[in-house]
Every structure is written in C-alpha cells, then in structure tokens.
Amino acid sequence: MAQHEAVYEEGRSADRLAELGLKPEMLDHVLRGADAEARTYTELDPPNMQGMARYSRTVRLLREQLLPLGWSFDNPRNLARTVSPDRRVAIIATLGDAATGDPAQNPSTKYEKGVATAEAINRNFVQLMLPMDLGDEDPFDDADETAITTWVLLYHVTDTEIRAELSLPDSIVDGHPATWLERIVLAPVTFEPEAHTQQRKQDSDVTVTRRIA
Fold first, then answer.
1. How far apart are CA 196 and CA 16, in angstroms?
2. Handedness of CA 107, 200, 118, 59 (dihedral sign)
3. Measured in whole angstroms, how far is the alpha carbon of residue 142 from the centre of its chain?
4. Residue 203's pLDDT band (boundaries 50, 70, 90)?
5. How much is the mean pLDDT over the chain?
6. Engineered SS bond to 105: which of 4, 99, 138, 158, CB 3.0-4.6 Å?
7. Contact 100/163 with Cβ under 8 angstroms?
8. Which pLDDT tens digit goes with each residue over 179-193?
9. pLDDT (tens digit, 9 = 90+) per residue, 89-112?
10. Residue 48: closest CA among 110, 126, 103, 130
11. Mean pLDDT, to the nearest integer, of 166-184?
12. Are 187 and 202 in contact (CB under 8 A)?
C-alpha cells in the first residue's frame, strides 16, 4: 500500500462518494444489474460474452444513473468514460484482480490496460502530484482533459460476492495500475454460490476493449 494512499470504508465511503456526487446505492444498483445481465449468458455463448456483458452493462447502468444528474459521457479512443458536470471527475469501469475491495491489499486490474487508460492515469499523476512543476506547459495538448481526474470502478466476482471499489490511480506499471491516491471500498454484493459458480468461470474482461483502452 502506498504511503500517501487514503482508504475509505464503511460510513466513510458514503461520505467520500457524496463529495463526488455519488451514493453507495447507485453503485450497488450498477453492480447488481450488471451481474444479472452477465448471468443470462452460458457456456453456449461465444467465449468472453459474460465478461463483455458485465462490462457493457456496468458502463450503461452507471450512465443511466448519472446522466439525469447532469453528468455526461464520452469514449475517447474507446475509453468509456462517465464525466461529472464540472468535468473534474471521470469514471471508467474494469475487472479487478483478487485484491479488489480488500482494504488491506493493493488491487489492480486483472488484465493489462491499453494506451488510453495509461494516459488517463498519467494525467492523474500530473494533475494531482506535480501541479507546481508544469508552468504553462500542457503535456497533453488539451487543457480541458488535464483538469479531469480519472477514477476506476474496479469489480471482482467470486462464487459468493462481488467486491468493488471506486479508486483513483496515480501510477501504472506494465499496463496495470500500481498505486492509488484514494480508494473508496464498497460494501460487497453477496449471493448464493450455486447460482454463480459456473458464471464466474467464464466471466472475464473484454479482450478488444482491454487492448484499445
């Protein structure tokens, strides 16, 4: 765990989410809805369809929750972002590793991320850690983009629960977020293991999206 990392759990999570214009029940709705969509796919479907469905529905449900509140969305270089009304916060979603949602561990994405995600995380570092060193130079050639910090909604599915967190990465190594400035750990979504054992075996991130974003 990075020394500068702030981890919010339980009641503190709700308070920090509120500062970002979010509520725990919004993200719970997103995770449950995406899980319900993923469970409609079976081994008879093409490989990766459950993971693709979970990812797609996570993004869609997040946008459906937030657009009525003044948020917007865009997809620069296929990086599916949901952006706050003041354009200070963007949220992306992706499958996390087994450390996701565990305050005692350092999580990352399950799969290597692409150039668009790496650049967004690098912007976080510049925006949050080096504001005094930039002067008038804009290394990304887009003043609007440098004002946005990109948060990651990580989710990890097991036989008994979905663990998730909304976290702010500030470094990326070999395509995987390595350190986090903030982590907002969400309450797990629990369910009966029998209904999800087979589903979890096929649940994976989207190969095409992973390579591009």
1. 31
2. negative
3. 23
4. low
5. 87
6. 99
7. yes
8. 999 999 999 999 876
9. 999 999 999 999 999 999 999 999
10. 110
11. 96
12. no
The answer to whether the beta carbons of residues 26 and 18 sit under 8 Å apart is no
- Cα end-to-end span (Å), the chain: 25
Q: Indicate the pLDDT class of residue 127, thresholds 50, 70 and 90.
A: confident
| Best CA proximity match to 182, nearest among 117, 114, 92, 107 | 107
User: Considering only CA atoms, which of 130, 90, 97, 129 is closest in space to residue 113?
Assistant: 97
Q: Which of 57, 169, 33, 49 is nearest to 113 (CA)?
A: 169
Q: How confident is the model at residue 136 (pLDDT cuts 50, 70, 90)?
A: very low
The answer to whether 55 touches 93, Cβ cutoff 8 Å, is yes
Which of these, 6, 65, 5, lies nearest to 30 by C-alpha position?
A: 65
Q: Which two tokens stand for residue 170?
A: 């500030």
Question: What residues are paired with 189 via a beta bridge?
Answer: 162
Ranges assigned E (strand) in the chain: 6-8, 72-74, 81-83, 89-95, 149-157, 161-173, 176-185, 189-190
- Quick one: which of 60, 96, 97 has its CA closest to 75? 60
